[in-house]
Amino acid sequence: MSAPSGNNNALNSSAGYSGVVEHSGPLHSFLEHATVLAFPVVLVLNLHWASSDLYKLELLWLIALAIPLGVILGDFVSGIVHWAADTYGSEDMPVIGPSLVKPFRLHHIYPRDICTHGLVETTGNVCILAVPLLSLSLYLQWLLPGSGLLAFSVVCLALMATATVATNQFHKWAHQESPSACARWLQRKRLVLEPAHHKRHHTEPFNVNYCITNGWLNPLLNKLKFFRRLEATLAFFGIKTAKAKENT
Ligand SMILES: [Zn+2]
Ligand SMILES: [Zn+2]
After folding, report:
1. 3, 18 in Cβ contact below 8 A?
2. With contact defined as beta carbons under 8 Å apart, do 75 and 163 qualify?
3. Which DSSP state fits 115?
């Protein structure tokens, strides 16, 4: 996502929508489309190679462990990235300012804008990061065939990447007024982000429930005050939150 292109493409300006259509620049748009197409290819290759190695080593049962682990790691990554974008940096920072910080900050002002995004816009930014990562893991498997530890790690990584790529789609469903029956079923089963659970993040003081894949980790991280402790640790090393910088 990039900067708003102007007010001439007005959408629905009712509550929660900015009424502005956003367009990626040509390079960003090309990368989004190319990596959205490449992601399923590198994902399937990774899973095929890794599961073949696990099968040969009679360790295929490890996939049962990798599935929840990968999904939980994906939820954790979504929380860390979301918290970092909400709490640190500015929209003017190079590269990550317009592509990461700005969309999250705008999302708090216009939470329904995400409902107007197509599949490429919703998942493209994460695919731009996930495709090189999964390409690197393919290369490592080519270098080290037959490694059980590597094969298990690759399955976890591939599932984590899948959960992370799907995160904004789940986030979008949580803001839709009428999500599909399939999305509603997944939400009811808490397999994806549940709207009432996510609403807490959009309620003052806006500093809980940062995980937005399925939110499984939110109760634990809230209880541990994980993000407040992380902010205190970073402040100790001189890294201030955007709010603290505004107040100085
Ligand atoms: Zn947020
Ligand atoms: Zn939201």
Report:
1. no
2. yes
3. G
